[in-house]
Design brief:
heterodimer; A: 235 residues; mainly alpha; Methane Monooxygenase Hydroxylase, Chain G, domain 1; 6 helices; 1% strand; B: 253 residues; alpha/beta; Rossmann fold; six-stranded mixed beta sheet; four-stranded antiparallel beta sheet; 35% helix; binds adenosine-5'-triphosphate; binds magnesium ion
């Protein structure tokens, strides 16, 4: 068992922070899944519900931030604890932004003129899948305290960018050919952009996780441009 | 820091009789900086400090091995007079201990009175030292009152004034704030910070936040061994050793 804090209340606070972050990631994760489903099915009710969920995420951001501040004030955290709390504060900001993107995608669905089919939704499938995979990696990295997984998230972000470029080109060419209405094309383009931004946010989360865990695990990595500072021995 | 260390300690062992308390300590203490010593009770911090100004040997059967160099010269060399050495390496103790019957002014001059005599400009020296110890404004109108008439925090600053009167190179402080209230602590911390510009300070503290606030470098000692010694900001944000991490975050194994 990892060493526990002598002050049990402190230990409990850090655990609670972890739990709250986990709850928030669950909600955001579901928002992404719902946004994708609403896109393909055109389910207005689901889209509407997901937009509402965004308020909950905003609230969670504020509350977790405040909780982090309280811990810092009360415990004057240092070392790994301090890095974890700082990472948590960065993480909630990014999760909130991911939630925003999912809500905005749902707006594209609810704002669609009635009767207009979700044409072209399949065009964003690949970029959505790639973005989801980055978010997956980042969140799993956090839950499992897995630095390798965090690095995978960062690497996988390149793929999202490529997919986004590909969608953009395809949309442009299909609009040029008249296969896609300009209005629909622009909508698809902006949805793709939102998935791409989600992956950027997830990448930021992955970086925050590496920062929090850094002292332990990234010492043997040659991927990093500058050598990591942590050289923790596991004695 | 590029400059040569003020104190250079190598393979230093210290014992009380056959109880070895410090084990092969290697440490370079930088000049004109504040170095904090932290570690669990009984790990050897006070012993370590006392080895740096040869007070350890005042304890019966206490021994030191290895070398301690002040500006490159071995302080344990036969030619060194420990009394004079202690003028260059002063010490401030945990409990402020002014000479009870002596006036504030005489307490400031105590180091000089005990080691050779007070020069003509005694008043000037008293004022300078008390200003240096951030106590002047509070006591300037009652310099002839006994030192013990001051509050605990003032007494501690009086002892710091006493220590800096002889213009030492190095100031060793053993938990200088443990017996005083938060406001007095803040004043003493302020003072340590200011003195650190001109003196080399080594301060033992049990208060981790205090170490983080006042020092440039921090050394973590455990069971008589130096576990980690690094820039304070590094040690408290990203310690290299698991033992350091566990200790400063307040964890037990
Ligand atoms: N005069 C002495 N005679 C014999 N043993 C001593 C003496 N002073 C200290 N010791 C022993 O040396 C060890 C280190 O003591 P030291 O006072 O240096 O620890 P410390 O780190 O300053 O502890 P604390 O934080 O409680 O002040 C302890 O095991 C202590 O029992
Ligand atoms: Mg002690």
């Amino acid at each position: 068992m990892a060493p526990q804090h002598t002050v049990q209340a402190y230990q409990a606070e850090l655990q609670e922070l972890r739990d709250r972050l986990e709850t928030m990631t669950d909600v955001v994760y579901e928002m992404i899944a719902n946004a994708r489903e609403a896109l393909t099915t055109g389910d207005m009710e689901l889209a509407e519900r997901t937009v509402q969920t965004d308020h909950q995420v905003n609230q969670q951001e504020v509350e977790i931030d405040r909780f982090c501040l309280e811990i810092l004030v009360r415990r004057q955290s240092v070392a790994g604890d301090l890095r974890f709390i700082l990472a948590a504060m960065k993480m909630v900001t990014q999760l909130e932004r991911i939630g925003d993107q999912a809500a905005s995608i749902c707006h594209e669905v609810t704002d669609r003129p009635p009767g207009l089919q979700p044409t072209g939704a399949d065009l964003v499938d690949d970029v959505a899948e790639a973005a989801k995979s980055v978010v997956d990696d980042a969140i799993t990295a956090f839950l499992d305290e897995d630095v390798d997984r965090a690095f995978e998230a960062i690497d996988a972000d390149d793929e999202v960018n490529e997919e986004y470029e590909r969608v953009s080109r395809q949309v442009l060419s299909q609009m040029g050919d008249g296969e896609l209405a300009v209005e629909t094309g622009i909508s698809i383009q902006s949805i793709a952009k939102r998935f791409e931004r989600m992956a950027d946010c997830a990448t930021n989360i992955a970086e925050a996780i590496i920062f929090a865990l850094d002292a332990q695990d990234i010492r043997h990595r040659d991927k990093l441009a500058s050598p990591p500072t942590g050289d923790r021995d596991h004695s | 820091m590029s400059s040569t260390p003020k104190l250079s300690i190598s393979e230093m062992d210290a014992s009380y009789g056959d109880h070895q308390v410090l084990h092969s300590i290697d440490m370079q203490i930088p000049a004109q900086q504040v170095t904090a010593l932290i570690g669990p009770s009984g790990c050897g911090k006070s012993t370590y400090l006392r080895c740096l100004n040869r007070m350890h040997e005042l304890t019966t059967s206490a021994t030191v091995n290895g070398t301690v160099e002040l500006d490159g010269a071995d302080i344990y060399h036969d030619d060194i007079d420990p009394v004079l050495l202690r003028r260059r390496i002063g010490m401030v103790f945990q409990k402020p201990a002014p000479f009870p019957t002596w006036s504030i002014a005489d307490n400031v001059l105590a180091g000089m009175k005990l080691t050779g005599g007070v020069p003509d400009n005694a008043d000037e020296i008293v004022e300078k030292a008390l200003k240096g110890a951030a106590l002047w404004d509070e006591v300037k109108d009652k310099l002839d009152k006994p030192g013990t008439s001051l509050s605990g925090g003032q007494q501690q600053r009086l002892c710091i004034a006493r220590a800096i009167t002889v213009e030492p190179d190095v100031l060793l402080m053993d938990e200088p704030c443990s017996a005083i209230d938060p406001v007095a602590t803040a004043r003493v911390e302020n003072l340590i910070h200011e003195l650190g510009e001109n003196y080399t300070i080594v301060v033992v503290t049990h208060n981790m936040q205090q170490a983080a606030r006042i020092s440039d470098k921090t050394a973590f000692l455990m069971m008589g061994e130096l576990v980690e010694f690094d820039d304070t900001s590094k040690l408290f944000s990203n310690p290299a050793k698991q033992q350091t991490e566990d200790y400063i975050t307040g964890k037990f194994g």
